[in-house]
Each structure stands twice: as structure tokens, then as C-alpha cells.
Amino acid sequence: MQARNELQISNLESDDVPICGAEYPLVAEGIRELRCIDARIYRHPGLPDRPWKCQLEFAAGFGECPNLFGFLHLGTKEKPDAGRARRYWRCWCLANQGPPKKRQKMSPRVFKNKWFVVQIETVRQKRKGKIVEQLPEHLWYSVIREIVDLRH
Predict the structure, then answer these.
(1) How many C-beta atoms lie closer than 10 Å to residue 11's C-beta?
(2) What's the rounded mean pLDDT across residues 89-117?
(3) 3-state SS assignment for residue 13
(4) What is the pLDDT of residue 37?
(5) Domain span holding position 124
(6) Which of 33, 69, 82, 136 is the most exposed place for a label (fewest CB within 10 A)?
(7) d(CA 144, CA 128)
(8) Considering the domain boundaries, does residue 90 fall inside one?
(9) Could you tell me if residue 15 is inside a domain?
(10) How many domains does the chain have?
């Protein structure tokens, strides 16, 4: 029997792991409207406890800015944990325009091809456990830090 906060998540194929060396561009921080063009769940291979992550890829369309990525943490258990306290739950419910129905899988596909209002932030630090290292300016990159709203 599945624990209450461990909702089923689909789309966990091994070929869905992000490619190492993917470009993470630097763009101006702020609020923008972007379309989610890809969403996948994978185990992060480079961290000791191999946490589950949901990687969301966003594009502005018409080459306005390079594609940006957002990451949602899904825990370190045997299966992804999309409990109510997680950002994944909140963002998924926003994209789905409501909470999941009983026994509904919280697939990352719900994000694809939808326009969102997102908060873009510059990553200036690298963290390894409790150690925080400042990155040199030429290594800074932008990520989607928050999905603020669904654009209707």
C-alpha cells in the first residue's frame, strides 16, 4: 500500500535523464511569460543520495531568449515523493488547474505546452551539502526559480 504523501508519478523511463553539458544560459532576472516545452523526472546522478528531480524546460518562442530550466525536488526515497508540502505539488496543481483526483498519477506531462508566469533567477553559488562556494561571474547561469502563475 502506498503512503498517503507518496503519489504515483509516471514518465520515469531511463532515456529521460538530462544530457550532461546542457547549456544553462545567463539572462536578466525577473518575471517573464514562458512556455514549458519539456518535463521529465529523473534521479540526479551527480549527488550522493541521488535525489529525484523534475526538470522543466521553458522557451519564450520565436528565439526571444535561450531555453531555461527549472528543477523541482522530489525527495530521495525509492520512488519520487510528490507530497503536499513539496513545490512539485503546488506547481502541478497550478498546471492541472486543480488538485489530483483520487489515485490520479501526477505526471510531469501536465506542464508541457502550457504558458506560465515564471520567476527567473541567477545562480551565483554552488552548494555541496553544507559547503557553499561562490561561483566566478563567468560561471553564473539562469534558472526558473518559481512558477508564479498559469497564463490563461
Answers:
(1) 14
(2) 95
(3) coil
(4) 95
(5) 24-150
(6) 136
(7) 20
(8) yes
(9) no
(10) 1
What pLDDT, in 10s, does the model give residues 24-43?
A: 789 999 999 999 999 999 99
Size of the chain, expressed as the number of residues it contains: 152
Give the pLDDT of residue 111: 97
CB burial string 41-76: b at 16+ within 10 A, e below: bbbbeeeeeebbbbbbbbbbeeeebeebbbebebbe
Is residue 13 over pLDDT 80? no
143 part of a folded domain: yes
How many whole angstroms separate alpha carbon 86 and alpha carbon 110?
A: 16
Grid coordinates representing 97? 488547474
12, part of any domain: no
> What is the value of pTM for the model shown?
0.80
- For the chain, report the end-to-end CA distance as a whole number of angstroms: 38
